[in-house]
Design a protein that fits this description.
Elements: E1 2-7, E2 15-16, E3 23-25, H1 52-61, E4 65-68, E5 92-94, E6 99-101, H2 107-116, E7 120-125, H3 132-143, H4 149-156, E8 167-170, H5 185-202, E9 207-210, H6 223-232, E10 238-245, H7 252-256, H8 258-275, E11 287-295, H9 298-311, H10 327-342, E12 347-353, E13 362-364, E14 370-372, H11 376-385, E15 389-391, E16 394-396, E17 399-402, E18 406-409, E19 411-417, E20 423-429, E21 436-441, E22 458-466, E23 487-489, E24 494-496, E25 499-504, E26 508-516, H12 523-526
Parallel strand pairs: 1-21, 3-4, 3-12, 4-7, 7-8, 8-9, 9-10, 10-11, 11-12
Antiparallel strand pairs: 1-16, 2-15, 5-6, 13-14, 15-19, 17-18, 19-20, 20-26, 21-25, 22-23, 22-26, 24-25
The structure holds alpha-L-arabinofuranose.
The site of alpha-L-arabinofuranose (AHR) has 10 residues, from loops.
Length: about 525
């Protein structure tokens, strides 16, 4: 059996867990909104038309923020279409996704739903077909208390109190030629800067996200960030990056090492932010918003589905990119979470894209059931358990060779440490076919930073793993009829003095929770 040794020392703490790391994304695209979160004719629909069963799963997922309303959609969107009496709202073409948008859900409905879902709303403005004035207008409409035409219009439309939206994205993927209103870095940098200036005049409390690159392979990656930052440093608070990964040509080893590509991407963007004088500790630091990330089989979309969709009719909420996620995909999602946590000093927020039906952890059928995809579980466990400070364990693990990413650690891990000394370990085994005997030295953790307290002060609360289910294989998925993929007990776990040992199944993502001895070990305690 392969073996791996970790040691956890809070003296190397990276920083506090940014709780916005567990954000998600709802776009007016495919069946994300309509037939996803909203389906007035469904047996489980509430009087407001939103599905109670889907909302319950969203609450269980435990995400912290939600980006809305796009995505590529936002670059052609008029926010005014989605407010006011529903019967007067216009039906429009959505040129981004070749669909018809009915505008039956807009800012009011979504903000109310997000509040119930316990999600902080992150609103994206259209810097594709629109500009500074419309961005300032939607901000004034949403956040100004009363007494102006826009604020009074909001009140007339049913929201007496402002929505108080703090997080705003300045456009979406403007670097991409596929984007409506695609721009050069200079064009976008100027527009983002002037939009930011006006938005901060209107509401100085907002936090603004400038659009970085759509992926690390963009020919403009690097130069785009430098140029945008030259225009916007001092005006924006975050710079975005988007990152999607997929398995190509059966190369599972490279796919499983996607976290190393995300590590590199984040570190490259962080270095550019430092060069621009906006690193941590600077007068106006710029954090990194990984505001879209996930596994997405984009090759299938680009080469097979998109040509059909884009040349066809103009349907309402068609089925778009409803990827069914396997065990392998879930392990990769878990390892991407490890990578995000490891960069907590630079990544201020991140959004799993998306939430329901469209490359999503939750799926639903019209008139039918809703269920958890395999990727639901690592996200849910990380969002529920990662509190306190992040610690990168010192690792002694074998490497694996990958065709795309070079050498990658076989076992990848990160830990979070609570003020009371409780520890949560998140760990990926990237081997497709071999178990790993894991040893974790915990001696320095108990009692806080620098302490050499005894591990007997800790107790094992839970140890779970996501791996191939009995009778399944690495391609097994959950579907409407059966959901075999989920968390199960991790085998061979013991805590002996300062040493935690466990057997990591092949191709697995595991989470081990340790609490101070004598502390209550209920889920509520862990979920504070
Ligand atoms: O999440 C799906 C799409 O991916 C978004 O609309 C776009 O921003 C990205 O390319």
């Amino acid at each position: 059996m392969l073996s791996a040794r970790l040691s956890i020392d809070p003296g190397t703490s990276i920083g506090a867990v940014p709780r916005r790391l567990f954000g998600t994304f709802v776009e007016h695209m495919g069946r994300s909104v309509y037939e996803g979160i909203y389906e007035p004719t469904h047996p489980d629909a509430r009087p407001d038309g939103f599905r109670a069963d889907v909302l319950a799963l969203v609450q269980e997922l435990g995400a912290t923020t939600v980006r809305y309303p796009g995505g590529n959609f936002v670059s052609g969107y008029r926010w005014e279409d989605g407010v006011g009496p529903r019967e007067t709202r216009p039906v429009r073409l959505d040129a981004a996704w070749h669909s018809v948008e009915t505008n039956q859900v807009g800012l009011h409905e979504f903000a109310d739903w997000a509040r119930e879902a316990r999600l902080e709303l992150m609103y994206a403005v259209n810097l594709g077909t629109r500009g500074i004035a419309e961005a300032a207008d939607v901000l004034e409409y949403a956040n100004h208390p009363a007494g102006t035409a826009l604020a009074e219009r909001r009140r007339t439309n049913g929201a007496e109190e402002p929505f108080g939206i703090r997080l705003w994205c300045l456009g979406n993927e403007v670097d991409g030629p596929w984007q409506i209103g695609h721009k050069t870095a200079d064009e976008y940098g100027r527009l983002a800067a002037e939009t930011a200036r006006l938005m901060k005049f209107v509401d100085p409390g907002v936090e603004l996200v400038a659009a970085g690159s759509s992926n690390a392979e963009m020919p403009t990656f690097g130069e785009w960030e430098r140029t945008v930052l030259r225009h916007t440093v001092g005006l924006v608070d975050h710079l975005s990056l988007h990152a999607y990964y997929e398995e190509s040509d059966g190369d599972a080893a490279s796919f499983l090492a996607s976290g190393t590509a995300l590590d590199r991407y984040i570190e490259q963007v962080a270095a550019i932010i430092d060069e621009a004088g906006a690193g941590p500790g600077s007068e106006h630091p710029v954090g990194i918003s990984v505001d879209e990330w996930n596994v997405w089989y984009q090759r299938r979309w680009n080469e097979i589905d998109k040509p059909v969709v884009m040349n066809g009719d103009w349907p309402e909420h068609p089925r778009l990119i409803e990827d069914a996620y396997s065990v392998t995909d879930a392990v990769v999602v878990g390892s991407l979470l490890v990578s995000l946590l490891r960069h907590s000093d630079r990544v201020t927020m991140a959004n799993l894209a998306q939430l329901v039906n469209v490359i999503a952890p939750i799926r639903s059928e019209p008139g039918g059931p809703a269920w958890r995809q395999s990727t639901f579980f690592p996200f849910q466990r990380a969002a529920a358990l990662a509190y306190g400070r992040v610690v990168a364990p010192v690792v002694e693990v074998p490497s694996i060779r990958t065709a795309v990413h070079g050498e990658a650690p076989l076992v990848d891990a990160v830990a979070t440490v609570r003020d009371d000394g409780g520890i949560v370990l998140f760990v990926t085994n990237r081997s497709l076919d071999q178990e790993v005997a894991l040893e974790v030295a915990l001696g320095h953790v108990v009692g806080g930073a620098g302490s050499t307290g005894r591990a007997s002060a800790l107790q094992l609360v839970s140890a779970e793993t996501l791996c191939t289910p009995p009778g399944g294989d690495r391609h097994t998925v959950n579907d409407a009829g059966a959901q075999p993929v989920g968390m199960t007990d991790l085998r061979g776990v013991s805590l002996d003095g300062a040493l935690l040992t466990a057997t990591l199944p092949a191709l697995s993502w595991s989470v081990v929770v340790l609490a101070p001895s004598g502390a209550p070990i209920s889920e509520e305690k862990l979920d504070v």
